Amino acid sequence: MTLETWLASVLLLTIAMLTTTSGAYVGVNIGTDVSDLPSASKIVDILRGNQITHVRLYDANVHLLQALSNTSIEVMVGVTNEEVLRIGESPSAAAAWINKNVVAYVPSTNITAIAVGSEVLSTIPNVAPVLVPAMNSLHKALVAANLNFQVKVSTPQSMDIIPKPFPPSAANFNSSWNSTMYQLLQFLKNTNSSYMLNAYPYYGYTKGDGIFPIEYALFRPLPSVKQIVDPNTLFHYNSMFDAMVDATYYSIEALNFKNIPIIVTETGWPSFGGANEPDATEENAELYINNMIQRVMNGSGPPSQPDIAINTYIYELFNEDKVNGPVSEKNWGIFYTNGSTVFPLSFGASDQITAGNSSGVFCVAKDGADTDKLQAGLSWACGQGGANCAAIQQGQPCYLPNNVKSHASYAYNDYYQKKHSSGGTCDFDGTATITSKDPSSSSCIFTGSSNSSNGGLSIPPTALGPSGPFGGSVNLQVCSLKYLISAIAVFLAL
């Protein structure tokens, strides 16, 4: 092997490693229990317009599978719970399902996974004996169609089958499922497939009777006195999401299996709830979803598996108003059916902020907010937060009215408009809120206003804001990738 060839090989391997690291993704579940469900083509327009690259269907909806053709969007199709028993008892039924719902659409529709049932062990335990046989039969049908390397088979399970998820290092699956779980994990290992996990910190927090602070559920930084530490490993857990994933890794390891990656097939936070659901708020949902996206996209894993990205699907695209249950069950969507977002959000590492309406959104101080907290938020935004606060200095356009609430609103909004796409949120210790009403006046133009692209004075800030609770930079990885590609071209030209 020549030196040039060897160097090129090393660089290509490095690219592969970087691509794996930066290739984490956040997808979306598409439920269809919606009164005014848009057409399949409109749904695909929403996905593409918001750079959503992965979706999970709960069935094999013919209209959506057709509309998703030639889009490159990776699709996970679902075997419904009602279908599991029949497929598990009949290999011919499994083959027919694959031919009808997979073979008929690939390669035009980029189907890459099959989710067999949804939380079968905890919702329809009587079907458990045929769950793994159903997966085996579906896999054999994929082998017969020469699709087993492209399409992987797994089954989403809830955290309910892990009775004591904390501390993660001591977690185990419910022993009554040991036989089924062993068969399931053996199948995943043999077929190089992932374990599918539905992880909901919302429920972990609301059902936890105050054991954990809400900041822990929302990916928000914890003060030193509230740090969550596994006493056995001394791993620090900055979020309940990470702890849930790690509890599952340790449960898998307890059955003597390793190197089975976890995909989070459902997670989210409801934006509205009933009178007895005070934590189901739009503010909390925005914090959770955007912080989760930022965390997943940094490409790292939980403390016990730092090199395995936690690819994740948000529950869910639309509010499903036709589902049964409490008010919150109908309000997990991140989009309205007209294509606008329930709250501002940003997928991936782009600078695009997807606003809830075409006229823009703004972050302002809440009416009645504590003055001391507002002052602290204002000081942080103008300092560490990196907001451009020149316009609120004496003699400048936004100095009047000279009060802490007005000045905080300007600073909060400037920070939010600049940092939202990289994980910045409109919270400021509960003193800020999102509004679609432009707070600008004739003399004071807020950042993001349609009246001005500059939002007041263009004096560069002197400090940078936080990069998110977990750090990491996909843009840095992309830059590194570009340099590596250039280097390869040079070496190959030698």
In short:
With 494 residues, the protein is of the alpha/beta class. It is 36% helix and 11% strand. It has two domains: 3-330, TIM Barrel, CATH 3.20.20; 351-472, Methane Monooxygenase Hydroxylase, Chain G, domain 1 (Up-down Bundle).
Plain-language structure description:
By secondary structure, the protein is α/β, with parallel strands linked by helices. The chain has two domains: 3-330, TIM Barrel (Alpha-Beta Barrel); 351-472, Methane Monooxygenase Hydroxylase, Chain G, domain 1 (Up-down Bundle). The chain contains 15 helices and 13 strands. It has helices at residues 3-22, 40-49, 62-67, 81-89, 91-103, 120-123, 131-144, 178-190, 201-206, 214-217, 240-254, 282-297, 371-382, 404-419, 474-493; strands spanning 26-30, 54-57, 74-79, 111-116, 152-154, 156-158, 195-198, 228-229, 236-237, 262-267, 312-314, 362-365, 432-435. Strand 1 (26-30), helix 2 (40-49) and strand 2 (54-57) form a beta-alpha-beta unit. The radius of gyration is 24 Å and the shape is globular. The protein starts with a helix and ends with a helix. Residues 1-22, 349-353, 355-359 and 453-494 have low confidence and may be disordered.
Defining traits:
TIM Barrel, alpha/beta, two-stranded antiparallel sheet, 494 residues, disordered N terminus, disordered C terminus, Methane Monooxygenase Hydroxylase, Chain G, domain 1, 2 domains, 9-stranded parallel sheet
